Amino acid sequence: MRAWYRGARWLWLLWPLSLLFALISHLRRQLFALGLKRVYRAPVPVLVVGNLTVGGNGKTPVVVWLVEWLRAQGYRPGVISRGYGGNSEQYPLVLNDNTPAAQAGDEPVLIYRRTGCPVVVGPRRADAAARLAALGVDIIISDDGLQHYALARDIELVVVDGQRRFGNGRLLPMGPLREGKWRLNSVDAVINNGGPVQPGEYLMTLAPGELRPVSGEGKTPASGATVHALAGIGHPPRFFNTLQGLGFILDKQIALADHEPMRPAELASLADQPLLITEKDAVKWSGGHNDCWYLPVQACLPAEFEQMLSKRLKELNHGN
């Protein structure tokens, strides 16, 4: 809800519900902490990439970066995900080359296609982690799941949108927070997507790659070209600003809700110009435009973050 980030006064009407949410969340955490609710411990280390707010903050590029970085360190990583937006008749679901986004969700399919690493989707992350461990991975990355306390974790990373941060700083439904900002004090690192950074945060930037065809039949659009842009991500203006920074002239900017599917019939009015979309939207492409291209992005993280992560992994290895 945009109202969370505009400071709308009417949200105070939801304050009693936020108090109830806080109470339920606290009781739930206590049940896990006291051992009254079961916690699953995977046979391999678990690294959670999550956030405090609802909506996208840039977790997926971090997960892709982690998969590639861990491989370079000699690990065999795999990824588990809730698979938001997907609908499967059987969980946990192991992705393959033919798994559609409609079944597994757009983010898991993007991660699988980009990295080729094992990816397992399921609403019960403990079940997904057990299935993934059986595939021979030696470290599990949980895409989201910071608040999924039924799965034990060894490293926690939180991704924060550097521009929007925490909105009005209130818990759901009065604000966008799933947990209070106090939670940042217990995680291993806070990754700031785009800045400006606060003390103790690691700055992540997103480096755009070359445009790739989705249904591109003509010449690849170049800087200076007039195009239409569409994004169904957590913060579409970030994508539009990136395109403008690359020199594209945006005729129309279509902002969909995070995970919202594109409808081919609705793209008919955009046929007069090339259409540029995000990689996340490209994995759920269902047609409707004959000159569509997606822009991949690569997460860039500082050496200090790599050093911190290397140290934490060594501590885990020495503890086993």
Fold blueprint:
Layout: H1 3-6, H2 15-33, E1 46-50, H3 59-72, E2 77-81, E3 93-94, H4 101-104, H5 106-115, E4 119-121, H6 125-133, E5 139-143, E6 155-161, E7 189-193, E8 201-208, E9 212-213, E10 226-231, H7 236-245, E11 249-255, E12 275-278, H8 279-282, E13 292-295, E14 297-300, H9 303-319
Parallel strand pairs: 1-5, 1-6, 2-4, 2-5, 6-7, 7-8, 10-11, 10-12, 12-13
Antiparallel strand pairs: 3-4, 8-14, 9-13
Defining traits:
320 residues; alpha/beta; Rossmann fold; 9-stranded mixed sheet; 5-stranded mixed sheet; 28% helix; globular
* Reported CATH architecture of the largest domain: 3-Layer(aba) Sandwich
Annotation field: number of helices: 9
* CATH fold group of the largest domain: Rossmann fold
Residue-averaged pLDDT: 93
- CATH homologous group name of the largest domain: P-loop containing nucleotide triphosphate hydrolases
- Give the low-pLDDT segments: none
InterPro entries: LpxK, P-loop_NTPase
Protein name: Tetraacyldisaccharide 4'-kinase
Keywords: ATP-binding, Kinase, Lipid A biosynthesis, Lipid biosynthesis, Lipid metabolism, Nucleotide-binding, Transferase
GO molecular function: lipid-A 4'-kinase activity
